[in-house]
């Protein structure tokens, strides 16, 4: 091989080395960017959840403070019944993160788990024909009640191993309620109640099917808090259910998800 040929081979090898090094460099850059993006998303997720949790804690503290100040006054029930409408919907800053909170009067809705088959049939009868309403009510109670529960004239005796509905989405996912009917009925339903109905805030639709205890103030509240980092698309939502006991909010359960 002459000198010119050797130079040609060397040039080709150099070019290949340049190409390989360029590919390695591009891969390193992509990997670094990916790692940076993953780290940024993880950081945003942690901060969003912390902000959402702070929103729940702040709202609980504010409600309990008001309950203490209104103890023994005639305004207490009025305040509780207007609390949902008056809850601040604006967002609040928490460093680089923000949160917003809202409230739902659970007692203004019909609880799917606490309602009897007769009550559910009456309720869904306002959205469809009697036959389909009866089938829906029977399907829901069958899905909840397992074991040897017995029913007599609309009164359901639930066995110890009953399986409650955890979210309204289950009514659709488990094909218990047709989507069109559920879309119209969902605003009147809850899975977070205790069977108590607030007669002052419940709609006529709910009151028509109510068979449980009636009160003139809520017995449970659903607190919803959403947290996020400014400029980041991820939002974390926490839904926490509390029972009202004297001047305290007693924790029942919560759900959370990333949006």
Give the topology, please.
Layout: H1 3-69, H2 75-86, E1 92-94, E2 97-105, E3 110-111, H3 117-124, H4 130-144, E4 150-152, E5 155-157, H5 168-173, H6 179-185, E6 189-190, E7 197-198, H7 204-207, E8 214-215, E9 220-229, E10 235-245, E11 248-258
Parallel strand pairs: 3-6, 7-8
Antiparallel strand pairs: 1-2, 2-9, 4-5, 9-10, 10-11
Helix pairs in contact: 3-4
Overview in brief:
This protein is α+β, with helices and mostly antiparallel strands and 259 residues long. It is built from 7 helices and 11 strands. The strands form 4 sheets. It has a 5-stranded antiparallel β-sheet. It has a two-stranded parallel sheet with strand order 3-6. A two-stranded antiparallel ribbon has the order 4-5.
């Amino acid at each position: 091989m002459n000198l010119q040929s050797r130079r040609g081979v060397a040039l080709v090898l150099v070019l290949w080395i340049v190409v390989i090094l360029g590919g390695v460099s591009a891969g390193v850059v992509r990997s670094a960017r990916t790692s940076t993006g993953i780290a940024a998303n993880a950081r945003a997720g942690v901060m969003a959840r912390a902000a959402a949790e702070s929103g729940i804690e702040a709202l609980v503290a504010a409600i309990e403070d008001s309950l203490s100040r209104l103890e023994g006054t005639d305004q207490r029930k009025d305040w509780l019944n207007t609390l949902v409408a008056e809850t601040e919907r604006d967002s609040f800053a928490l460093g680089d993160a923000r949160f917003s909170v809202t409230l739902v009067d659970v007692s203004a809705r019909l609880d799917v788990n606490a309602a009897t088959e007769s009550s559910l049939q009456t309720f869904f009868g306002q959205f469809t024909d009697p036959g389909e309403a009866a089938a829906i009510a029977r399907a829901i109670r069958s899905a909840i009640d397992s074991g040897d529960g017995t029913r007599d004239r609309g009164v359901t005796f639930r066995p110890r191993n009953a399986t409650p509905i955890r979210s309204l989405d289950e009514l659709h996912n488990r094909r218990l309620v047709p989507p069109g009917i559920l879309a119209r009925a969902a605003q009147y339903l809850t899975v977070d109640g205790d069977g108590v109905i607030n007669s002052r805030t419940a709609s006529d639709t709910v009151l028509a099917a109510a068979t449980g205890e009636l009160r003139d103030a809520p017995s449970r509240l659903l607190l919803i808090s959403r947290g996020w980092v400014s400029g980041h698309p991820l939002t974390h939502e926490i839904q926490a259910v509390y029972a009202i006991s004297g001047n305290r909010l007693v924790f029942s359960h919560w759900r959370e998800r990333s949006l």
